[in-house]
Amino acid sequence: MGSLALMAPPPGQGQGNPWMQLVPLVVIFVIFYFLLIRPARNKQKVVQKMLDSLKNGDKVVTSGGLMGTVVGLDKSVVQLRVADKVKVDVTKSSIVGLQDQETSTRTES
After folding, report:
1. Whole-angstrom Cα distance, residue 89 to residue 92?
2. Which burial class, exposed, middle or buried, applies to 78 when counting CB atoms under 10 A from its CB (0-12, 13-18, 19+)?
3. How many CA atoms lie within 13 A of 53 on its CB side?
């Protein structure tokens, strides 16, 4: 019986409000939402908008680091020209962004 007394809370310190135990979990979820989930959703929307607006002549970069110019578009496949008379087909989802002006001028010189 003595061991049961050790497991009981000390007198005057009850269990407290069970809802107060959820407050730290809610705070952690809110922090994760604003630091991880929300920015990832915003970036995904921007990339999807860029993919939807691709057109012939756009200079793009793929997830594998391949840089080329769009010469053909299909529903899920993009044809890129990576050199003279060299064209490759890549999935639309592998395109991660457009080349900026700095990158394109560095590769030309």
Report:
1. 9
2. buried
3. 8
pTM of the entire predicted model = 0.63
> What is the greatest pairwise CA distance in the chain?
88
Residue 15 has pLDDT above 70, yes or no: no
Q: Are strands 67-73 and 95-98 parallel, antiparallel or unpaired?
A: unpaired
Tokens, residue 28: 């952690």
Token pair belonging to 98: 């457009």
Distance CA 2, CA 6 (A): 7
Inter-CA distances, 10 with 4, 13, 17, 21, Å? 12, 6, 16, 19
**What is the tens place of the pLDDT at every residue in 70-99?**
999 999 999 999 999 999 999 999 999 998
